[in-house]
C-alpha cells in the first residue's frame, strides 16, 4: 500500500462463510481489498479504473509466480498474497500473446541458470520493443492480444476467483512514450494509435485490464459484499 502495511487480526476474514462465488450470499469484509503488485504503472491504472467502486488499498510486493496456465499462476499468487496480508487481496498478471507464435511470449516462466524469470518481462528487458517486433519478422500475421487475469482471494485458505479480460490488436514498431512495458508496440483493433499514444483515459476504457476489472466490479456488485472497516459500514 502507499503508506505501509499493518497486519491485522484474523477478524478480517469474511464473517460468513459460503462457497466462493456464491453470488447473493452476504459477506462482511472488515478490511479493504489489498491490490498486491510490484508494478507501479499497473497500480496507477487499477486505481484509475476502480475509482471508488471498491474499498481498496495497495501493497508493493513482488510475489513469486509458479509455473502453469495463466489462471493457475494467478490463483497461486492470490493464495500467497492472502496469507501475507491476512485479508482480502487482488492480484493481477498480464500477458501479451502473438498469434503467429501460438501465444508466445505469453505469461510463461522459464528457469535460466539460477534465476526464474517471467518470459514476457524478460523478453522485454533483453530484446526490447524492436526485438519483440523482430520475433514476428518472418510472419505476415502481426496480430496479438493482451490478456489480464485478476484473482480475488477473500482471505487465507479461501479459493481464489479469477476474472479475465482480453483486448485484440497487432504488434507495430514502437510509437509513443516508453514508460509502461510493451504499450508502444501494441495497437488495439479499431485504433490508429498504440496503447502508449492513447490518452490514459482512452486506454483505460478499452484495455485488457479494464475489461477484467469490469468483471471484478460486477462481481462485487452482484455478491453484495459488505465492507465494515474501522466501524464504518
Ligand atoms: O498494460 C500493460 N501495458 C504494457 N506493458 C504491460 C502491461 N501490463 C504489464 N505489462 C508488462 O508486461 C510484463 C509482464 O507483466 P507481469 O504481469 O508479469 O508484470 P509484473 O510481474 O511486473 O507485475 C512486464 O514487463 C510488465 O511491465
Ligand atoms: Mg508478473
Automatic annotation (TrEMBL):
The keyword Magnesium applies. It catalyses: dITP + H2O = dIMP + diphosphate + H(+); XTP + H2O = XMP + diphosphate + H(+); ITP + H2O = IMP + diphosphate + H(+); N(6)-hydroxy-dATP + H2O = N(6)-hydroxy-dAMP + diphosphate + H(+). Keywords: Cytoplasm, Hydrolase, Magnesium, Manganese, Metal-binding, Nucleotide metabolism, Nucleotide-binding. Signal peptide: none annotated. One of its GO terms (biological process) is deoxyribonucleoside triphosphate catabolic process. ITP binds at residues 37-42, 77, 93-94, 180-183, 203, 208-209. InterPro entries: ITPase (IPR027502), ITPase-like_fam (IPR029001), RdgB/HAM1 (IPR002637). Its cofactor is Mg(2+); Mn(2+). Its EC number is 3.6.1.66. Residues 1-24 are annotated as: Disordered. It is found in: Cytoplasm. One of its GO terms (molecular function) is XTP diphosphatase activity. Binds 1 divalent metal cation per subunit; can use either Mg(2+) or Mn(2+). The keyword Manganese applies. GO terms for cellular component: cytoplasm. Mg(2+) binds at residues 65, 93. It is an enzyme of class 3 (hydrolase). It holds the Pfam family Ham1p_like. HAMAP family: HAM1_NTPase. PANTHER family: INOSINE TRIPHOSPHATE PYROPHOSPHATASE (PTHR11067:SF9), INOSINE TRIPHOSPHATE PYROPHOSPHATASE/HAM1 PROTEIN (PTHR11067). Homodimer. Pyrophosphatase that hydrolyzes non-canonical purine nucleotides such as inosine triphosphate (ITP), deoxyinosine triphosphate (dITP) or xanthosine 5'-triphosphate (XTP) to their respective monophosphate derivatives. The enzyme does not distinguish between the deoxy- and ribose forms. Probably excludes non-canonical purines from RNA and DNA precursor pools, thus preventing their incorporation into RNA and DNA and avoiding chromosomal lesions. Pyrophosphatase that hydrolyzes the non-canonical purine nucleotides inosine triphosphate (ITP), deoxyinosine triphosphate (dITP) as well as 2'-deoxy-N-6-hydroxylaminopurine triphosphate (dHAPTP) and xanthosine 5'-triphosphate (XTP) to their respective monophosphate derivatives. The enzyme does not distinguish between the deoxy- and ribose forms. Probably excludes non-canonical purines from RNA and DNA precursor pools, thus preventing their incorporation into RNA and DNA and avoiding chromosomal lesions. Belongs to the HAM1 NTPase family. This is Inosine triphosphate pyrophosphatase. It comes from Dendrobium chrysotoxum (Orchid).
Amino acid at each position: 500500500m502507499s503508506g505501509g502495511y499493518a497486519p491485522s487480526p484474523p477478524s478480517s476474514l469474511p464473517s460468513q462463510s459460503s462457497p466462493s462465488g456464491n453470488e447473493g450470499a452476504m459477506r462482511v469484509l472488515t478490511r479493504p481489498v489489498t491490490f498486491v503488485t510490484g508494478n507501479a504503472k499497473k497500480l496507477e491504472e487499477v486505481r484509475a479504473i476502480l475509482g471508488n467502486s471498491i474499498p481498496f488499498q495497495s501493497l508493493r510486493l513482488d510475489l513469486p509466480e509458479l509455473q502453469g496456465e495463466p489462471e493457475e499462476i494467478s490463483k497461486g499468487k492470490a493464495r500467497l498474497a492472502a496469507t501475507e496480508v491476512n485479508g482480502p487481496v487482488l492480484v493481477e498478471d498480464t500477458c501479451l500473446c502473438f498469434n503467429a507464435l501460438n501465444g508466445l511470449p505469453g505469461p510463461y516462466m522459464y528457469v535460466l541458470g539460477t534465476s526464474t524469470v517471467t518470459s514476457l518481462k524478460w523478453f522485454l528487458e533483453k530484446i526490447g520493443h524492436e526485438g519483440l517486433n523482430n520475433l514476428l519478422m518472418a510472419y505476415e500475421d502481426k496480430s496479438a492480444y493482451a490478456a489480464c487475469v485478476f484473482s480475488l482471494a477473500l482471505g487465507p485458505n479461501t479459493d481464489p476467483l479469477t476474472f479475465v479480460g482480453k483486448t485484440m490488436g497487432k504488434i507495430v514498431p514502437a510509437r509513443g512514450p516508453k514508460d509502461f512495458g510493451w504499450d508502444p508496440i501494441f495497437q488495439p483493433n479499431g485504433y490508429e494509435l498504440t496503447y502508449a499514444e492513447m490518452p490514459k483515459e482512452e486506454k483505460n476504457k478499452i484495455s485488457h485490464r479494464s475489461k477484467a476489472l469490469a468483471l471484478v466490479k460486477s462481481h462485487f456488485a452482484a455478491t453484495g459484499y459488505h465492507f465494515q472497516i474501522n466501524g464504518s459500514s
